[in-house]
Specification:
The protein is α+β, with helices and mostly antiparallel strands and 108 residues long. It is 40% helix and 18% strand.
Amino acid sequence: MFRCHDQAELLATINQLSAFLRNKTRIKCIVLDSIAFHFRQDLQDISTRNRMLSQVAQTLNKLAFDHKLAVVVINHVTTKILKPTDGGRLSGGGGGGGGGEEEGESWY
């Protein structure tokens, strides 16, 4: 098990997984929990965050194919109350600031 404390550690660990897995043929599943946590905390620029997450996804996809294993990626869903006085409507928290439909706001 690897524990990553920030975005740099997460990216370094993902990039080193292929070498780690070469001699570990009994590993058949990798679980990454939570994929977006460090990106939400460390990156406020949405386009940069999306580009980096896409690169991580491509790397994990290649690992799955090359090493014949499953990769499970978890993205925690959070909620925040938009207007407590208006019936307590909820919005997808996403960890970012501001909210809004262009940022993936959801109504429940």
